[in-house]
């Protein structure tokens, strides 16, 4: 089994790609935004750090349970800062699972275009500008962690999701051979 952690800025298309990956891999999709919603919280407006810690703890528990059942797990989150990724890496290791980061890279112009389109169409909850700016300024990229890198413009492409899923399956097979 493998734990795949999505990583990237808001509006990069992480949730879109995570859903497609979960279908491709027959994986359990664990969304921190959905866990927050279950708890009556909305991250786009700002959530206190202690609440994020609780959400992460709940997500880790869910992932440990699914990995224990032999399932693939796709975690839909920003995957930043680095200690967040390290925590997920520990969950995967404890479950004897492979760990991979799927980094969805987005440039500032495309992110802004998507934010403004969302504000006009309200397809998902808004993320206020102060949160977007703060996240962009504090984002710790996984460049030195051998991520699978996906361009944000390709997250709706089913062929891209299939290719990422194939890479994840190959990584799992390599780990089994080790």
TrEMBL record:
InterPro entries xrefs: P-loop_NTPase (IPR027417)
- A family per Pfam: AAA_33
Record's protein name: ATP-binding protein
Organism source for this protein? Agromyces salentinus
What does UniProt list as this organism's lineage? Answer: Bacteria, Bacillati, Actinomycetota, Actinomycetes, Micrococcales
Against SUPFAM superfamilies, the record matches this protein to: P-loop containing nucleoside triphosphate hydrolases
Which Gene3D superfamilies would you find in this protein's record? P-loop containing nucleotide triphosphate hydrolases (3.40.50.300)
Superkingdom assignment: Bacteria
């Amino acid at each position: 089994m493998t734990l795949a952690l999505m990583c990237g800025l808001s509006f990069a298309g992480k949730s879109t790609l995570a859903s497609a990956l979960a279908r491709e891999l027959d994986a359990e999709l664990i969304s921190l935004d959905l866990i927050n919603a279950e708890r009556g919280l909305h991250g786009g407006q700002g959530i206190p750090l202690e609440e994020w810690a609780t959400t992460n703890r709940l997500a880790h528990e869910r992932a440990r349970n699914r990995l224990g059942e032999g399932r693939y797990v796709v975690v839909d989150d920003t995957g930043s800062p680095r200690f967040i990724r390290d925590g997920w890496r520990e969950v995967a290791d404890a479950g004897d699972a492979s760990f991979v980061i799927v980094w969805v890279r987005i440039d500032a112009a495309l992110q802004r275009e998507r934010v403004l389109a969302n504000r006009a169409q309200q397809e998902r909850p808004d993320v206020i500008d102060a949160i977007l700016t703060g996240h962009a300024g504090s984002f710790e990229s996984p460049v030195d962690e051998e991520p699978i890198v996906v361009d944000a413009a390709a997250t709706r492409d089913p062929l891209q999701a299939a290719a990422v899923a194939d890479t994840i399956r190959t990584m799992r097979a390599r780990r089994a051979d080790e």
